[in-house]
Design goal:
The structure is a single chain. The chain is of the alpha/beta class and 429 residues long. It has 3 domains: 107 residues, Ubiquitin-like (UB roll) (Roll), CATH 3.10.20; 110 residues, Translation factors (Elongation Factor Tu (Ef-tu), domain 3), CATH 2.40.30.10; 139 residues, Nucleotide-binding domain of ferredoxin-NADP reductase (FNR) module (Rossmann fold), CATH 3.40.50. Helices cover 24% and strands 25% of the residues. It is built from 9 helices and 20 strands. The strands form 4 sheets. It has a 6-stranded antiparallel sheet. Strands 11-10-9-8-12-13 form a 6-stranded parallel sheet, sandwiched between helices. Strands 15-14-20-16-18 form a 5-stranded mixed sheet, covered by helices on one side. The radius of gyration is 24 Å and the shape is globular. The structure holds flavin-adenine dinucleotide and FE2/S2 (inorganic) cluster. Flavin-adenine dinucleotide binds next to β5, β6 and α3.
């Protein structure tokens, strides 16, 4: 065979390979687009569509495509073990094993479980069904999941109001052997697996739970990335899993623990128990971290979220490197955390049951925020499109989602917590 023929043959082979790869890539992209389109269908009575990566316009993380849940509906769990985790006795870990004895699926560290509980009515009425989300606080295991729950007291200065219903129900009523029902792990706040960037975890109070899952998973997998944990609490009594964190920081040179106590107790020792008096703030991050690019994961109370997340963005940290999660209405003014504004349009939103009509001016982060701002009571759980609690019927008009919904949707319904109107809209609310 001549040299020219050989060169021709090799060129033809390379071209054929490129064509095959190109075809596969195109097919995969088409399949992904179809999933997005299917997720965006509204069905009879109303329309819903996915917008192309709106969060990037807003400076948020890109919208991930929702994954099918690891099991449909709710699965029954048995409380295997309870462990009090802090000096105040306010945080209890619940180890939950599946009642069916089958191995548990893995999850992405940072995700949460959505529980449905029947809680007795203290006034003697019929029990209420309530939905709440709790982050998985440990690395994935096949025999049990762990959640760590803080007992929520009445708001400061309002002892007349009832304490948090579900958190106190867990603490007071759920003993070893008790049963609970939960949906499969979900949520979009989780460790990026394929990144090589050093990881910065910033947790305030009970917001530490998803970060513990990330940390424990990285430790278990001997992940080579360097990790910083900035953990803000009032004092040593509020800090959870102190011994575990101490062991990790002493045993793993790539892990750096920085505890900030806002109001240390006389027993708390600077340098031994905590590294800074005050809050986790930008100045501390700037003093501690080097100039490399880092990936940030933030979960904490409103003050922390509303100051740190925009501050990181203002410092030029790319939006894709800032991941954050809030623990719902009690702990977040969603709009204050958004790095920039939502799109305004001139839609008019009518809530048919409450008889209220409002203009959409983009000031609310979602239709859920808009409804609550009007004093309309809406059931909600995750506020992230996962639990399905805020599902509402669209009588007319269309909405768009800021991220792909995880929850199963009835035709003609939308999830208020992740949607905004694109036309005039009437909702059965
Ligand atoms: C994704 C996600 C993950 C989460 N992970 C965790 C976790 O790992 N650990 C954890 O502990 N929590 C977590 N949470 C928070 C949790 O889901 C609950 O929001 C929390 O436990 C409070 O629920 P509750 O039923 O106890 O309180 P609720 O009954 O919902 O009450 C909340 C607050 O409202 C007050 N209140 C009651 N009535 C009134 C009234 N009439 N007017 C004004 N205020 C009133 C209560 O006193 C209480 O302070 C998470 C939330 C989300 C969304
Ligand atoms: S509150 Fe959970 S899906 Fe909207």
């Amino acid at each position: 065979m001549s040299n020219a023929t050989l060169v021709l043959l090799i060129t033809a082979a390379i071209l054929a390979q490129v064509a095959v790869f190109g075809l596969f890539g195109w097919l995969r992209q088409r399949a992904q687009l179809r999933v997005l389109e299917r997720r965006g269908e509204g069905g009879a009575g109303g329309a819903v569509r996915m917008v192309g990566k709106p969060e990037q316009d807003q400076g948020l993380d890109p919208a991930p495509v929702a994954q099918a849940p690891a099991w449909p509906g709710h699965r029954e769990f048995v409380v295997q073990r309870r462990v009090i985790e802090d000096g105040n006795g306010a945080v209890c870990s619940f180890y939950l094993s599946p009642a069916d004895g089958q191995p548990l699926p893995t999850y992405r560290p940072g995700q949460y479980l959505t529980f449905k509980l029947e809680v007795p009515d203290p006034t003697g009425g019929p029990p209420k069904t309530l939905v709440r989300c709790y982050s998985l606080s440990d690395r994935p295991r096949t025999d049990c999941y762990r959640v760590s729950i803080k007992r929520v007291p009445p708001p400061p200065g309002r002892p007349d109001l009832p304490a948090g219903v579900v958190s106190n129900h867990f603490h007071d009523q759920l003993k070893e052997g008790s049963r609970v029902w939960a949906r499969a792990p979900s949520g979009h706040f989780f460790l990026t697996q394929d990144s090589v960037l050093p990881v910065v975890l910033i947790g305030g109070g009970i917001g530490i739970t998803p970060l513990l899952s990330i940390l424990n998973t990285m430790s278990d997998r001997a992940d080579p990335r360097e990790v910083w944990l900035f953990y803000g609490v009032r004092n040593g009594a509020e800090r959870i899993m102190s011994e575990h964190l101490k062991t990790l920081s002493e045993g793993q040179p790539g892990f750096h623990l920085h505890c900030c106590y806002a109001v240390p107790d006389p027993d708390d020792l600077l340098g031994r128990d905590y590294q800074q008096q005050g809050y986790v703030d930008l100045a501390l991050l700037q003093r501690t971290l080097d100039f490399r690019r880092h990936e940030f994961y933030v979960c904490g109370p409103p003050a922390m979220m509303e100051s740190l997340v925009p501050a990181l963005a203002a410092q030029g940290v790319p939006a894709a490197d800032i991941h954050y999660e809030s623990f719902g209405p009690a702990s977040l003014n969603t709009r204050a955390v958004h790095v920039s504004t939502t799109r305004a349009n001139t839609s008019v939103v009518r809530f048919s049951r409450s008889g209220k009509t409002v203009s959409w001016d983009g000031a609310a982060a979602s239709l859920l925020d808009l409804a609550e701002g009007q004093g309309i009571v809406v059931d909600s759980g995750c506020r992230a499109g996962s639990c399905g609690t805020c599902q509402t019927r669209i009588e007319s008009g269309a909405v768009t989602y800021s991220q792909a919904p995880d929850a199963d949707l009835k035709p003609g319904h939308c999830l208020l917590c992740i949607s905004t109107p694109t036309t005039d809209l009437t909702l059965t609310l």
